[in-house]
Amino acid sequence: MTKTFYTKTSYIKTSLKSLSLASVALAAFALPAMAAESSSNSLIIYTYESFTAEWGPGPSIEKAFEGNCACDLQFVSVADGVALLNRIKIEGANTEADIVLGLDTNLTSEATATGLFAPHKIAGSLAKNVPGGWSDANFLPYDFGWFAVVYDTEALETPPKSLGELVDGNPEEKIIIQDPRTSTPGLGLLLWVKQVYGEKAPEAWAKLSKRVLTVTPGWSEAYGLFTSGEAPMVLSYTTSPAYHMIAEGKNRYQAAAFEEGHYLQIEVAGMTNKGANNPLAAKFMAFMLSPGFQNEVPEKNWMMPAADTSAPLNPVFGQMVQPAKSLIFSSEDVAKNRETWVKEWLNAFGK
Amino acid sequence: MAFAALGFLALLAGGALLALGVAALQSPKVISTAFDSYFLRIAGFTLWQATLSTLLSILPAILVARALHRHPVFIGRSLIIRLMALPLALPALIAALGLLALLGRAGILAPFLTWGFGARWPGIYGLSGILLAHVFFNMPLATRLFLAALDAVPQDHWRLAAQLGFKPLSRFRLLEWPAIKSAMPGIALIVFLLCATSFTLVLTLGGGPQATTIEVAIYQALRFDYAPMRAVAFALVQLVFAFGLALMASRFVLVERSQNIDVSSAKLMPPSGAERLINRVLIGAAIVLIVSPMLAILMRGLQADIIKLATQNSVITATLTSLILAISASLAAFLIVVSLLSARSSAIREFAAGGGGILLSVSPIVIGAGWFIALQGIINPLKAAPVIIVAVNTMMALPFVLRALSPSWAASRARHDRLAASLGLRGFRRFRIVEGVALRAPIFAALAFGAALSLGDLGVVALFGSDSLQTLPSLLFARLGSYRSDDAAGLALLLMLLCLGLLWLADSLSQKETLR
Predict the structure, then answer these.
(1) CB < 8 Å to B424, chain A
(2) Per-residue pLDDT averaged across A38-53, rounded?
(3) Which of A7, A11, A17, A24 to mutate to test the interface with B (most CBs of B within 10 A)?
(4) What is the nearest CA distance from A254 to chain B, expressed in angstroms?
(5) Which residue of A77, A94, A349 is in closest CB contact with B209?
(6) Among the listed ranges A347-351, B39-43, B100-104, B323-327, which one has the minimum average pLDDT value?
(7) Which of A340, B32, B282, B322 would staple B472 via disulfide (CB 3.0–4.6 Å)?
(8) Rounded to an integer, what distance in angstroms lies between the CA atom of residue A64 and that of residue A85?
(9) Which of residues 11-40 of B touch A (CB under 8 A)?
(10) Closest C-alpha among B493, B367, B500, B506 to residue B15
(11) Measured between alpha carbons, how far is B334 from B328 in angstroms, rounded to an integer?
């Protein structure tokens, strides 16, 4: 009697135990199932948020690509380009991404060093518009542009004419910038200041930080705040005014031309090792430099297309600021110094 | 069963610590480079904001507690005291959003503040916001604790003071102050600990390079910089620091609610007209502090298009995800508590009765960071999110579930142990027939309370969350991050109502916490 009773309780104990495990396991298995399931006929692309936004190029590119592959293209988006690299590093070899789209030349060397990317085997010369030509084996450019301070002509009468004027200007006139730890424009400004100020960059940042209203994790947030009138200036691109002029018919927002020159950003995509085993990934990389993709770049991503579009660019693009000089660090230099320079930025900022 | 429960806790905390330790030992050199001037600055800011928060919470709390003590009987008093328990159970994210809705750049009060300020109201991002939010959470807590200390002054002392004709000043100096003073170190330490380790508030209201604490820097090292070794270094510092504080705090016994309300002070020496007025103002101000952020969320939330929001797929998925995770964590915490409370070994029961308060010092971010690093390279850590979130939330809810359940459980044991033994009832059968029936109300109260605590958590999900796993708080944080403030306001209202609903359920169930 006692014996049977014991076995029964221990049975119940075990079932209780497994119940507690079950509740955890339930959560563990039920939830990922809600997320997108990857199948053999799908292509997963990690990118940044403004690319996949309704007004961004993502939706129409997805349509164009799916139209001739009978497959399922899925975008997974994070705040911005640097966050994209972090995400890939976190996931490592277990990543689900076939393609990572939205890094820039400042990050390619570091991304290559992860060993997670495979050669694209496409002639770099196809990206014929990219300044300086192209030869990277793992990454392929899809567009480019120059960073610029975009200002609201109704809120700011005299925009800065140089980076120096931006740094030394009236702290009451605010600018919104992006965090270099997560965002490629944020990193771009960091490198821009470094190019112009060199060793004196921390002092420049200490001054500039007084003009910074807020530091956002990505470009979308910063630009959203700017257009809602929170600050008269934002860090964006020389081509940003084209959006307001073409899509909204407004001349209100303009880019400030800086005497020292503008930092060049070349945006790239790369195929992961996982993607190297997915034929759709190679197909997409080739598609990227074809008109089907490139047509969406100027008036959806508001950047300069890396290759030919079917029709000539809207003349408005000709009115954009043409940088006196293109500033850029080599990808190796950035990879070597990024951590140090970001720390320098963090330290200078609070002072 | 009790050992399985302890094993789970040991595995969860130990595994994380082991991962941090191994990582630190593997590359001590990289670790040591993490302690640079930037680290010193955030460590300095962490201590500075925690010190200010503690002072700003404790000083008003003394005045409010004294005021409440001097008026032991008035309509709504017990409601006010219950209200004071609310902030601590409310998700930090809700408090942060409430304060932003009220005092942010576009807050409800911003136009008035701009007018009074003479320039555009700069909002409360940074140190001011962090301090305000910490006061919102800790002033009511400190008030309750100080009130209990004042209530514990023996009646005889007041009688003697009345007979000797003490003036108000000497009454304060000789009776009230000693009680406050002896309770002070314990209260100050616990508030300091909570402020030094708070994550969500600093993340939402600060987080920029100027206002970052160690806790937030751990998260940023992993998700912003991807510098795992720096995260390890920061996590180890935070661990030692918080553990030390918790150990110090555990030397002081904190009484949260005195058993008998002592009316003698007011009866023997009734407050003067002026004191009455001052006390009313103090109590009123405390109520405004607690209630106004919640009212702000209600006002802002109702302006948002709730219907449209509630029918969005992402919102529905996030709500369901949150509920599943919260209920799982609450159930798991409940099972652990029950197995600890009904353990045969008295040592385990004593450990349980001690409240496992030390668990409070183990920050979810530190545990999360440990597991993040442990899992890396083996699997994609972001895919382990649900399991880690439930496990860590279980641990976080544990002390609270324990405290909610242990008194009635002990009472039930005392009452039913012999009868159950004579009938041979043990284990689950006993639970089903005895405690499961007699303690139904407290059990559901504990479950609801545990779920409410887990529901609003934005700690581990910030670390492990991604587009494939969004909880209601992480979705809310994302919408806030992209400045879709209308969406954020609506979601905040939704989250607040869910949490308040659960808390109300817990509260009303524990009101009938009598054994049948």
Answers:
(1) 5
(2) 84
(3) A24
(4) 23
(5) A349
(6) A347-351
(7) B322
(8) 26
(9) 36-38
(10) B367
(11) 10
In tens, the pLDDT along B260-295 reads: 566 667 777 888 889 999 999 999 999 999 999 999
Q: Does A155 touch chain B if contact means CB atoms closer than 8 Å?
A: no
Interface of A with B in 253-312 (CB under 8 A): none
Q: In the structure encoding, which two tokens stand for residue B145, read together?
A: 């604790």
Question: Is A86 within 8 Å of B225 when comparing Cβ atoms?
Answer: yes
A339, B225: Cβ pair inside 8 Å? yes
Label residue B355 by pLDDT band (50, 70, 90): low
Reply yes or no on whether the pLDDT at A7 is more than 50.
no
Per-chain mean pLDDT for chain A: 87
Chain B: give the shortest CA distance to residue A273, in Å: 15
Residue B505 sits at the chain A interface (C-beta within 8 Å)? no
Cα-to-chain-centroid distance, residue A296: 17
Two tokens at A290? 């074809």
Q: What is the DSSP string of B434-445?
A: IIHHHTHHHHHH
Residue A21 CA: distances (Å) to CA of A25, A89, B163, B362, B402: 6, 31, 64, 23, 20
Closest CA to B96 of B296, B344, B316: B296
Confidence of residue B73 (pLDDT cuts 50, 70, 90): confident
pLDDT band at B514 (very low <50, low <70, confident <90, very high): very low
Query: In whole angstroms, what is the distance from residue B46 CA to residue B215 CA?
Result: 9
Minimum mean pLDDT range among A292-296, A297-301, B351-355, B449-453? B351-355
* Rounded-to-integer distance, Cα A201 and Cα B60, Å: 44
- Please indicate if any CB of chain B lies within 8 Å of the CB of A113: no
- pLDDT given at position A351: 59
Coil, strand or helix at A175:
strand
Chain A contact for B465 (CB, 8 A cutoff): no
pLDDT value of position A18: 39
Residues of A numbered 40-59 whose beta carbons fall under 8 angstroms of chain B's beta carbons: which are they? 49
Nearest CA in chain A to B121: A230
CB-based contact B325 A20, cutoff 8 Å:
no
Nearest CA in chain B to A344: B38
B106-165: pLDDT as tens digits = 788 988 988 888 877 877 878 999 999 999 999 999 999 999 999 888 888 888 888 898
Copy the structure tokens of residue B2.
């009790």
Answer whether B278 touches A (CB < 8 Å): no
pLDDT in tens, A19-34: 344 444 444 444 444 4
pLDDT in tens, A162-201: 999 999 999 989 999 999 998 999 999 999 999 999 999 9
DSSP structure string for B306-370: HHHHHT-HHHHHHHHHHHHHHHHHHHHHHHHHHHHHT-S-HHHHHHHHTTTGGGGGS-HHHHHHH
Per the structure block, which two tokens stand in for B68? Answer: 């409440």
B317 to chain A, any CB pair closer than 8 A? The answer is: yes
A326, β-bridge pairs: A262
Instruction: Determine whether the interchain pair B328/A24 forms a contact, defined as Cβ–Cβ distance below 8 Å.
Output: yes
The residue written with tokens 């420049």 in the block is A204
DSSP-assigned beta bridge partners for residue B469: B466
Maximum alpha-carbon separation in chain A: 95
Instruction: Report pTM.
Output: 0.85
- Tens digit of each residue's pLDDT (9 = 90 or more) over B32-51: 888 888 899 999 999 999 99
Tell me whether residues A342 and B225 touch, CB distance under 8 A: yes
* Number of residues that make up chain A: 351
Beta-ladder partners of A263: A327
Instruction: Determine whether the interchain pair A27/B224 forms a contact, defined as Cβ–Cβ distance below 8 Å.
Output: no
